[in-house]
């Protein structure tokens, strides 16, 4: 399929078929997050291509979908490809992303964003991984397109491990040519997403996470706090907000729209 509707439908039918669950057409409409018209169109195409057979029940009203042998063979090919190619993604993600979102829906969003941003090349340090105001703008642009509420928050970050600390975006710590400040994206007032950590890898620890996400729980000057498995504590604080933030965000507005068009072209 060339669309997410067709892809989701293929996985839905395959999963139910393997599980032995009857494929009632009305149930498919109820359980999938796509319109009935879109699903009917894709099902008709799958029937025409010999992947499905639509059987009308004895009552003359209910319709059951039956995968053909061709569908089963295609499902086996998909499983083989998935296990040989995509299984590596989980290990890579666990090395580069640490996400502790407050619910499964937001966790899925963060992981999807990471996968897509990585695949399109944005997270690399030589691209946008160290440009936090651009990266947070991209996160906001994509998440709002997915239907979430998102905003950019200006802040600074302190990373502490034992007696050692590293400051990101704090006044007095910027390298020549860098803005004194940091930016993150807050989604649905529930999760803080920080994909702009490239300068931490450059200046603190080269194997530091490429992306972090955790519950947004503001109190006093703290926006969020995260304990890392390596023993570090990461704290996002808003008692310092760079006065250059609005101008920095405005500088990237046109570029964000250009990059978002590339994202849509690649991922739909």
Summarize the structure.
The protein is of the alpha+beta class and 268 residues long. Helix content is 46%, strand content 21%.
Rg (C-alpha, Å): 23 Å
* Terminus-to-terminus distance: 12 Å
**H/E element sequence:** HHHEEHEHHEEEEHEEEHH
Number of helices: 9
Q: What's the mean pLDDT score?
A: 88
* Total DSSP E strands: 10
Proportion of helical residues:
40-55%
Biggest sheet details = 8 strands, mixed
Features of the shown structure:
eight-stranded mixed β-sheet, 9 helices, alpha+beta
How does this model look, in words?
Helices cover 46% and strands 21% of the residues. It is built from 9 helices and 10 strands. It has helices spanning 4-19, 25-31, 36-48, 69-96, 104-120, 132-145, 198-203, 245-251, 253-267, and strands spanning 52-56, 63-67, 97-100, 150-161, 164-168, 182-187, 191-194, 211-215, 222-227, 233-237. Strands 3, 4, 5, 6, 7, 8, 9 and 10 form an 8-stranded mixed sheet that branches. Helix 6 (132-145) packs across helix 9. The protein starts with a helix and ends with a helix.
